[in-house]
Each structure stands twice: as C-alpha cells, then as structure tokens.
C-alpha cells in the first residue's frame, strides 16, 4: 500500500486507484465499507482525495429512497473538501495539490446562464440526480473489486477516499482554511445562506420566517442575520431548537404543534401584522410550502422553497390568491449561488469573522474502519450520524434533543479526531485520542490555520494500480 498520489510518469498518465469507500448496496440498509477501484480522470475531469465530508440530509433522503432517481449500488456523499490528485486533459483551472470544494451544481463558465448574473442553473450541465458523470452519459469512474459498476451521486460521491468530478463541479480554495469548516460550503450552508443573501436578497430591517430549523434552516437564519433582518422567526415542532436557533440569529419561535386550532399562517400573520417579508420552507413538504406562501406579505412578500420533497409531490395554490395578492414563490437550488464566484466570497467572510461556520459542526468522526463497535453520537437533533459496526456503516437517525447541525467525517487514516475550540489566543484545534471505551484523551494543540500539509500519519492510504 502506498499513498494515493502517484510519482514519476503518473502525472501524464494517471492510473486506477484502489481505495476504501462506504457503498450503499440497497435502500435503507447499512453502508458497506469496502475496497473499490477509482478510474483515472478523463478529459475535463479531476480526481481528488477526500479530506473530510459532511453528512447532508439529502444523502439520507436518497439512501432511503426506493424509487427513481434512486439506484444501487451507489456511493453517496456530496458535501466535502479534497486535494487534487490528478487531472485529465484540457483541465486548466486546477493542478495536482490544489485544495478544492466539490459542488453538486455545475458552473461551466461558458453557457448563457453561467455567464449571466441572473441564474446559477448551468444549461450545459443541467442539474439532475444522475448516476453518471455529467459530461459522459452512461459512464462511471467507480467499480467494486468484482468489476461491478458503482453509481455516482450528485456529481460528487464523497463517501470514498478518492472520487472523480467534472472540472465544472470543483472550486479551488485557500488551503489554509480548516477543512471541516470549508466543506460545509460545498452544499448545505451555502444553500441556506445563499437563499437569504442571493435568492431572496433579504433587506435590512425586514421580517423573515423560516419553516424548519434543521441545518439548512439555521443557515438561512445565519444568512438573514448577515443581511440585517430585524426579526427572524423560526417555526418548528421541537421547542429545543429555539435555544439553538438563537445562536444563529433567530429572535422568535413558533411551535406549530401548540397553535391549538389555529393555522400557523394565522399565528404568523398576527405576529407580523399582515405577513412576513420573506418566508423560507426548509423541510421539503409541499403542504408547508403552501402554508409559508399563506403567511407571506401580500404585495411584496417572497416565499422561497429549499427543502427536497418526495418525487411527484405537487403544490396547490388558489389561482385567485396568486393573481390578487402579488406574492412571489420561487425555488432555490444551492441558494442561487454560482459556486466558483460566491464560495470564495463566503470563505472570505468566514475568515473575516462575519460568517460563523464553527457553530454548525456538532461532531467529527473518522471515516476509516477500526473495528470499533460504535462510532455514533447522541443528542443531535434531526441529525444522522455514522454508526460503524465492524465493516458496516449505518446512517442512524438519532433522537431530537439538541441542535441539528453537521457531522463531519474525516477520511485520513489517523488515530485522532479533531475537536475545534476557540480560545482568547485565537482559534486553535486540539487533537484527542479516542480510546476503545470511547473516552476522550487530550493529546496536543496547534494553530488552526497553520496551512501546513497533514503529516503522513494523517493521510489516507491507497494503492496505485
């Protein structure tokens, strides 16, 4: 076994890589940690080594889904950060060794839509939940050791030590930014912050209502806070989320289960004196979109839907209301952000201590199988975490008790997990050793943004074939 970067003539002729991946073989069944083959990148493609990946609720949705566009076996995961290991022909944006964020939304920079400031919906590579590479239909870069094709997911497939992406789906970033923070902008946090900032263009002093205070809803609150909203009202069925939401700028809370015989829209309309300026549906329910539209302010209110609903779900609105009330209903993919333009801007705001990414991460676990019977974490609201049982990796839904944010999974083969803390001397991270009894032992500390490459003991191993 040697490290997952080649030497000698491999720069001009990348070879297949044998590495580990968490493979979803059947809907709803535990992911199987197994060795796979990752093919070299073709023209306009990039092969990257995943440093760490976060678990997004969309992964769980498609893990459980049994109807198209579900397909198996598949490598899930789409919120991550990695290092470019090799590039195919005609790739000029990145080179080997660059730090990149993979994104499920393509940004080719060539089509009419990508050149326009009005849309982030690439027309050259339209968004779809395809099992293939975006530029090469019916083509996968993954196979298992028996030669069976493994399907891609959302153009990324980050639950693998190595993956291949189209160059339209990678964004080069500053390598000094903490990976477990930067990876959040690969999907979820960009989606929520962008929905408030770019899609809705929330104005200072406005009133915002957020339906669903999961990680996306909290990211919307963070975006609304950055835009200067004066009131941010969270709507959820879990009262514990209000305390969490306060950290993200939520000023008021409505528990939809305690509205008695009144609709939530009636309560919100009363609270806001006629409706909110901006309403965000972050759950993925057509009925909640209708409800959010109902308590949106007539004349200028905007309702933005971000949640992923079941295939075939429909929204039913009264045509007279649409005509007479002058409201706006719009969808928002990836927060309306152009990945290669807006992600660097969000990272700059993070470095300037404006965008607070640290508070989104609740747990960090290790990707590699060490045979430990339980890698799960408790007390995470509406969050799914990995449970590593021998060589099977499960996605387990945990009881809603605290804050619904992100679990990041490190793919380095190290014996340490990282727990990030803020100190009066600046941001630092401390290494902790995870004992067999799952107890924590502090080992050492070093600067968070030191920019140095990971030591060899912290890098994943892979075979170059």
Can you put this structure into words, describing what you see?
This protein has 465 residues and is an alpha+beta fold. Helix content is 18%, strand content 28%. The protein contains 10 helices and 24 strands. The protein is globular and about 65 Å long. The N and C termini lie close together (10 Å).
What attributes characterize this protein structure?
465 residues, alpha+beta, Quinone Oxidoreductase, Chain A, domain 1, Rossmann fold, 8-stranded antiparallel sheet, 7-stranded mixed sheet, globular
Topology at a glance:
Layout: E1 2-3, E2 17-23, E3 31-38, E4 45-54, H1 57-64, E5 79-87, E6 99-102, H2 112-115, E7 142-144, E8 149-150, E9 162-166, E10 170-172, H3 179-182, H4 188-199, E11 207-211, H5 215-227, E12 231-236, H6 240-246, E13 252-255, H7 264-272, E14 278-281, H8 286-294, E15 302-305, H9 319-325, E16 328-331, H10 339-351, E17 361-366, E18 384-389, E19 392-397, E20 406-410, E21 416-423, E22 426-434, E23 440-447, E24 461-464
Parallel strand pairs: 11-12, 11-14, 12-13, 14-15, 15-16, 17-20
Antiparallel strand pairs: 1-24, 2-3, 2-24, 3-7, 3-19, 4-5, 4-9, 4-20, 5-6, 6-10, 7-8, 18-19, 21-22, 22-23
Helix pairs in contact: 4-5
Sheet with the most strands, sense and barrel status = 8 strands, antiparallel
Shape: globular
Low-pLDDT parts are 1-10, 369-404, 413-461
CATH superfamily label of the largest domain:
Medium-chain alcohol dehydrogenases, catalytic domain
- Computed over alpha carbons, the radius of gyration is 22 Å
Please report the number of helical segments: 10
The name CATH uses for the topology of the largest domain is Quinone Oxidoreductase, Chain A, domain 1
**Total separate domains:** 2
User: Overall mean pLDDT score?
Assistant: 81
Q: What's the count of strands?
A: 24
CATH class of the largest domain: Alpha Beta
Strand % is 25-35%
Alpha carbon gap, first and last residue? 10 Å
Structural class: alpha+beta
Family: Belongs to the zinc-containing alcohol dehydrogenase family.
Protein name: Alcohol dehydrogenase-like 7
Keywords: Metal-binding, Oxidoreductase, Zinc
Cofactor: Zn(2+)
């Amino acid at each position: 076994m040697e490290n997952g970067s080649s030497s000698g003539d491999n720069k001009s002729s990348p070879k297949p890589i044998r590495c580990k991946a968490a493979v979803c073989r059947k809907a709803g069944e535990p992911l199987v940690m197994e060795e796979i083959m990752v093919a070299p990148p073709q023209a306009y493609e990039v092969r990257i080594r995943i440093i760490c990946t976060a678990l997004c609720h969309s992964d769980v949705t498609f893990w459980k889904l049994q109807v198209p566009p579900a397909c198996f076996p598949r490598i899930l995961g789409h919120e991550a950060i990695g290092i470019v290991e090799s590039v195919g022909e005609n790739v000029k944006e990145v080179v080997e060794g660059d730090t990149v964020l993979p994104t499920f939304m393509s940004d080719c920079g060539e089509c009419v839509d990508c050149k326009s400031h009005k849309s982030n919906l690439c027309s050259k590579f339209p968004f779809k939940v395809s099992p293939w590479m975006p530029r090469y239909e019916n083509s996968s870069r993954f196979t298992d050791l028996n030669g069976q094709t493994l399907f891609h997911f959302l153009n990324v497939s980050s639950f693998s030590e190595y993956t291949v992406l189209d160059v339209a789906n990678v964004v080069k970033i500053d390598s000094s930014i903490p990976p477990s923070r930067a990876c959040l902008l690969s999907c979820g946090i960009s989606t929520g912050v962008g929905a408030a900032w770019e899609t809705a263009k929330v104005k200072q002093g406005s009133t915002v209502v957020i339906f669903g205070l999961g990680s996306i809803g909290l990211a919307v609150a963070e975006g609304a806070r950055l835009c200067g909203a004066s009131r941010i009202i969270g709507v959820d069925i879990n009262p514990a989320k209000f305390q969490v939401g306060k950290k993200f700028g939520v000023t008021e809370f409505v528990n939809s289960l305690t509205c008695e015989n009144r609709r939530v829209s009636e309560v919100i309309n009363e609270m806001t004196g006629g409706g909110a300026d901006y309403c965000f549906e972050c759950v993925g329910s057509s009925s909640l979109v209708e409800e959010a539209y109902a308590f949106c302010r007539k004349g200028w209110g905007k309702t933005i839907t971000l949640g992923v609903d079941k295939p075939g779900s429909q929204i039913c609105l009264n045509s007279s209301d649409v005509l007479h009330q002058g409201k706006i209903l719009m969808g928002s993919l990836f927060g309306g952000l152009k990945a290669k333009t807006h992600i660097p801007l969000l990272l700059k705001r993070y470095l300037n201590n404006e965008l607070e990414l640290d508070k989104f991460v609740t747990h960090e676990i290790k990707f590699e199988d060490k045979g430990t019977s339980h890698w799960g974490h408790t007390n995470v609201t509406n969050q799914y975490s990995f449970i590593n049982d021998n060589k099977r990796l499960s996605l387990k839904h945990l009881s809603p008790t605290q804050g619904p944010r992100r679990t990041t999974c490190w793919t380095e083969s190290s014996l340490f997990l990282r727990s990030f803390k803020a100190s009066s001397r600046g941001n630092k991270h401390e290494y902790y050793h995870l004992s067999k009894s799952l107890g924590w032992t502090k080992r050492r500390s070093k600067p968070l943004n030191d920019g140095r490459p990971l030591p060899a003991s912290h890098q994943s191993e892979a075979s170059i074939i």
